[in-house]
Design brief:
It is a single chain. The chain has 118 residues and is mainly alpha-helical. The protein has two domains: 71 residues, no CATH class; 32 residues, no CATH class. The protein is 69% helix and 5% strand. This is DUF1642 domain-containing protein. It comes from Oceanobacillus neutriphilus.
Length: 118
């Protein structure tokens, strides 16, 4: 089964709750699904994460539970995707022109991305 791709903030919220619960000896996949769909418990003890997870679950219930059961990938942010392409460029003239264009555009728009122009 192909892994579900979750937004970064959803994946971070899941990991934040689950890393804490693993210390309480919750380890199995069924326990993970049970805990991370127990909205009353999440609201009481993990309200910050619950505010991220519940709206995602409401819109994507199958994807959310599938991600908990079978694992997931984290969706790259546009900044991460751009940084990956930028870092993969070579020293040939085309790539150097592309890199200069990316830096010019980011600077013109007043956007700073670590590893590119910051």
């Amino acid at each position: 089964m192909e892994k579900v791709v979750l937004p970064k903030e959803v994946a971070e919220a899941i990991e934040g709750v689950w890393s804490d619960l693993r210390q309480e000896r919750y380890t199995g996949p069924l326990q993970k699904i049970g805990c991370l769909t127990n909205w009353m418990m999440l609201e009481k003890y993990y309200s910050g994460q619950e505010r991220i997870l519940y709206p995602y679950f409401e819109e994507n219930p199958v994807e959310y539970v599938t991600a908990l059961a079978y694992g997931y990938k984290v969706k790259k942010s546009p900044e991460d995707e751009l940084r990956e392409v930028y870092e993969a460029s070579s020293t040939d003239v085309f790539d150097q022109g592309y890199d200069a264009g990316v830096r010019f555009t980011l600077n013109t728009l007043g956007i700073e991305i670590e590893g590119i122009n910051a």
